[in-house]
Structures are given as structure tokens and as C-alpha cells.
Amino acid sequence: MNDNEIVRLFFSRDETAVKAAAEKYNSYLMKIAENITNSHEDAEECVNDALLSAWESIPPKTPEMLSTYLGKLVRNIAINKRKSMRTEKRGRGEAATVFEELSETIKGSENVESEFDRRELSQEINAFLEQLPENKRVIFVRRYWYCDSVKEIASELGISVTSVSVTLHRLREKLRTHLRKRGYDI
After folding, report:
1. pLDDT tens digit string along 91-136?
2. Least buried of 11, 13, 33, 102, by fewest C-beta within 10 Å?
């Protein structure tokens, strides 16, 4: 079943929409959630919550790309879950390293007033990514959106771990420079 058909099922409030979305995107969503939570059980819960959230938000929302929409839902839910269970005994996983790497580049605040600033920052990061060659953009997104390990990225792209690490370091520096030029105090 294609994405348009699944979205139509959501709009018609047909419960098979959730089942169809789960069948098509479960492994994709699980990978995102497991990379962030470092727990299969928590990842399953995040995926279920994301599918429920999709059921509750479609309609009125009409996602242009269902995979991206579901991916964003599960990623946000997994990040929130991770924040709520931040204890060392549950394990840090790859997400902790990813967030630490980016925190050196991008500083943010947690208050409601900063929502507009976050949206502008998001647009600036997207503009930065658009100007990158595809191979570097893939490395950046795999690391900082999907929370893939450096080793996993290197293996799947057929390059060395060192090459991925150096590329990520250089991209963070370029992003920092890009954001400073745009007036961000980082």
C-alpha cells in the first residue's frame, strides 16, 4: 500500500491505517527509537505512541511524506522518553554521544519563548544542509537525525570510521561558522 492510500485511510478514520503504517514503517521507526532509547522495549513503546499520535493528528494534518512525518513523531517521543529516564543504570546509548557532539555546536534553551528561535535555527540548519554535497549531508543526517553510530555509518557507506569522524568534526565546525554568520551566539 502506498503512502497516499495510507493517509486516505487515516482521513477516513479507518483503523487499518495504523496497521498499514506499522507494517510499512515498523523497522524504520524501531531503528530511530532504538538508537535514541538504547532499549528494544522502550523503542516498541515509542513506535506505538508515534502511531497513536499519527492517528490523533491525521487529520487535520496532511503529511507530504508519511515516512518523514512518522519518523519525526517517533524521534520526538523517543527523545522525550530518554529525557524522562536519564539514569546511568539504563545505559546512555548512541543518542547521548550525538547530543553531546551537537551541544558543543548549538546551544538552546528550554523555555517556551524560544520556540520561534528554534524554528529559525531549524531553517538555518536546513539551509546549511542543502548546500552540502550529498555524501556529507547523508553522514550528517544519519548521525544527528537518526543517531546512527560512526561505525555503522562507515560500514554502510564503505568508508573508514576515521573518515566519518573527521567529516563530522569538520561539518560541526562549518555549521558553527554558518550559524555565527547568521547572528547566532554559539
Report:
1. 455 666 666 676 666 655 454 445 556 777 888 888 999 999 999 9
2. 13
By C-alpha distance, which of 157, 181, 182, 184 is closest to 168?
Answer: 157
> Counting Cβ atoms within 10 Å, is residue 24 exposed (0-12), middle (13-18) or buried (19+)?
middle
Q: Is 132 inside a domain boundary?
A: yes
Cell numbers describing residue 126: 536546513
Are 19 and 79 part of one and the same domain? yes
Do 76 and 101 lie in a common domain?
A: no
Do 77 and 105 fall into the same domain?
no
User: 43 to each of 34, 37, 61, 171, 184, how far by Cα in Å?
Assistant: 5, 6, 24, 29, 34
Check: CB of residue 106 under 8 Å from CB of residue 186.
Answer: yes
- Quick check: helix, strand or coil at residue 14? coil
> Total domain count for the chain?
2
Q: Which residues of 71-98 are buried (b: 16+ CB within 10 A; e: fewer)?
A: bebbbebbbebbeeeeeeeeeebbbbeb
Q: Which three cell numbers stand for residue 89?
A: 543504570
Reported confidence tier of residue 86, pLDDT bands at 50, 70, 90: low
